[in-house]
Design a protein that fits this description.
Elements (H helix, E strand, L loop, with lengths): L1 E4 L4 E2 L6 E2 L4 E5 L3 E3 L8 H24 L3
Antiparallel strand pairs: 1-4, 2-3, 4-5
């Protein structure tokens, strides 16, 4: 988990708070951004967010594979 200054706005992955450009936030590739108060610190919590992202990606791939070509 990295701390970055946002270039673009977005929503906190955990609480849904609006984050604006120029604000400091936590960032994890393929997972999203987190407001400073919601940034996961525990390894297991970070792992659970990563797993959720991987599961969503796998579901998208399975749905695409099931479509007639």
């Amino acid at each position: 988990m990295r701390t970055i200054t946002l270039k673009y706005g977005g929503d906190c992955r955990k609480c849904g708070a609006e984050l604006r450009p120029g604000q400091v936030a936590g960032y994890e590739k393929h997972v999203g951004i987190f407001c400073p108060g919601c940034m996961p610190q525990d390894r297991e919590e970070i792992r659970s967010f990563r797993q959720e992202a991987a599961d969503r990606y796998a579901e998208r791939l399975e749905a695409r594979a099931g479509r007639p070509g």
